Amino acid sequence: MENYTVTGHIGEGAHGLVLRGKHLPTGREVALKKVKVRRLEDGIPISILRESKILQTVDCRYVVKLLDFFPQGLGFVLVFEMMPSGLWEMLHDIDNPITPAQGKSYMRMLLMGLNYLHNHHIMHRDLKPANLLISFEGELKIADLGQARLVWTDTKGESRPYTHQVATRWYRAPELLYGARFYSKAVDLWAVGCILAEVIMKSPIFPGETDIEQLAMVISSLGTPTEDNWPGLTSLPDYNKITFPESRRVPWETLVPDSPPEALSLIQCFLLYDSDKRISAQEALGHSYFFTPPLACPLAEMPKPKDGHRNKFIDKEVRADVPIDELFKDLADFVP
Question: What global pTM score does this model have?
Fold first, then answer.
């Protein structure tokens, strides 16, 4: 703990603050994820333990690096490389709009990072623009693995149940919305399809305000699912709890206007009811979308977010040069 000092505030997550800091021996800028302990008897949240454990095994340039982690008083700190912005901010920066070629490059980096995770049997389970960070060099990195899980299979190759309460609503696969407990890495691929549509439109494709509205938006857009296009649909836990009006599929050109045909084709490959038929990250990297002009930008031509780029989108008080001990000295810091 004596190796770090806090220099500012980046944001807040489900389990605590993300602070800007400095590694004193080297002067390196870092991000410090300060974990809240809601009840002393619960100990460190399992998501934080899971995130740190998984990140210790990850070595990919497109996944954010965990540099250090340590307990501190009644809390816990994860230390990450400093990233000045995220894909959400880049998409909403009206002063510096990203080009189609730059958007294609972001998608390529996302898929390369996700392919690495999936090849190492890791489901992210919360992919969204806010969890895709952008480095000073313009490189996209997958972050926030608090909901990530190793894929479980038994000796017969059968999976174990997982919770369906994962993924941010707008990017949540329909099987999760129907309460599925047995699912695969394909939940990440649905999220990638939603992100690709958002990169093109600069707004989410399915912005539901409740889980029911979310499912209704998906069904009214993609058409009423059936056992023919979604085997196992009727056996999902929440299938019989709600019914929706019969819907026909809306043309993709209407759902994602002003999108090139190759992009629409790739989005369709991700946004399929049948999770077994969704295109994999590796297969997507070979899709014609990435080989049709404009081609993905080289890194040298990608936007380079400046220090403080997030400040254009959030208005947070910055606490400068606070010794890390002071952030953990009071019990009130951890227990609401």
Answer: 0.87
Domains contained in the chain, CATH given? 4-82 (3.30.200.20), 85-152+164-301 (1.10.510.10)
Measuring CA to CA, which residue among 207, 170, 201 is closest to residue 98? 201
CB 170 within 8 A of CB 208: yes
Q: What is the pLDDT along the chain (336 residues), one digit of tens a residue?
A: 688 998 888 877 655 688 889 999 999 999 998 876 666 555 666 767 778 888 888 999 999 999 998 877 667 888 999 999 999 999 999 889 999 999 999 999 999 999 999 999 999 999 999 999 999 999 999 998 888 888 876 544 456 666 666 668 999 999 999 999 889 999 999 999 999 999 999 999 999 999 999 999 999 999 999 999 999 999 999 998 888 999 999 999 999 999 999 999 999 999 999 999 999 999 999 999 999 999 999 999 999 998 877 766 664 333 434 444 454 443 334 333
276 catalytic per annotation: no
Q: Does the annotation list 33 as a binding residue?
A: yes
Q: Which of 93, 126, 211, 258 is catalytic?
A: 126
Mutual orientation of helices 100-119 and 186-201 as an angle, nearest 10°?
170
